[in-house]
Amino acid sequence: MTRSDVPGLDRRRLIQGAGLALGAATLGLDPARAQGPGTPGTRNTDTVRLGWGRGGLPLIARERGEFEKGLADQGITVKWVGPFPNHAPSLQAVVGGSADFGFWGSTTPALAAIIAGSPLVFTNYNVYAPRSTAIIVKKKSGIDSVKDLAGKKVAVNRSGLGEFLLVAALEKHGVDRKSVEFVYLNPPDASPAFGQGRVDAWSMWTPAVDIARDLYDAKNIFFEGTDLDFLIDYSSLVSLRDFTTKNSAVVRAVIDAYGREGRWISDNPVEAETIAQKEGKYGDAVRDHLAGLKRQNRFYEADDAVFLAGFQKAADWLADRAILPKRVKVADHSVRV
């Protein structure tokens, strides 16, 4: 088991589930019925609006075109909404009615929105490995370890991957959180702030952290894939509860299409990273580094009990450290179709 795995997940069960979905598609059956439980086959729209960003699963799906073709075969038209710089504005688009799904972003801001009263639900989860979120500093900064962050400014995105990774790093290395200044910036603002020296470090995810490391001659002082003791955050497909109930067949079709796209990415890392590079406009060195990670996507149904136990542990950890304002029962906001 790698540190990126959710402890105890039954991979055989996942493989069997994927095979069941494929078999249902081959036989012309409704995947929602074949994979039950859940509300069978409700559908009140023929158009689905999907959030996307400048990296990750939705970007590849949007650029390749196979995702849209697969849904078109089922009479579903795809409209892409974005690009979004991170998950929070993607969630706002869903809540505000301009998108039906977020863009496979972090579970942490989704939980924060749910706690605040947004009627969002998780419909599917993705764990990709190896994880590559990192805290970076410039090589000439004189900062060589997490302990050296005391008295420094660190850019993070509020209630997201950047913030929780910094909290975890400080806790692991015995650094008082109050001794570090958290500077809340979204990625487009954090990158120039880091480059210009207005912050001393940046806690960020792929590919922005890899681009910054190359662009600003930076290095890791904490790397999620090796230094984090357990997975605290996951990629999630989020929608409104009402939309999920009224369009369970559409939601199922979207989940299955993303599953096929994720498997293609896992099997074709060079091609996938080349697509991402075109959108991100970064150099070949960054592309080759990311392709060399050979990340694998693993998808989990919203009612997977073992997965939800790991997710609940993560949510409690975040609440206990005030990254989330209070505890929340994740199973109550996780809906399988």
UniProtKB/TrEMBL annotation:
Q: Where is this region: Disordered?
A: 29-48
The organism encoding this protein is Methylobacterium indicum
| Family note | Belongs to the bacterial solute-binding protein SsuA/TauA family.
Q: Where is the Solute-binding protein family 3/N-terminal domain?
A: 47-268
What is the name attached to this protein's record? Sulfonate ABC transporter substrate-binding protein
**PANTHER family in the record, alphabetically?**
ALIPHATIC SULFONATES-BINDING PROTEIN-RELATED
Domain of life here? Bacteria
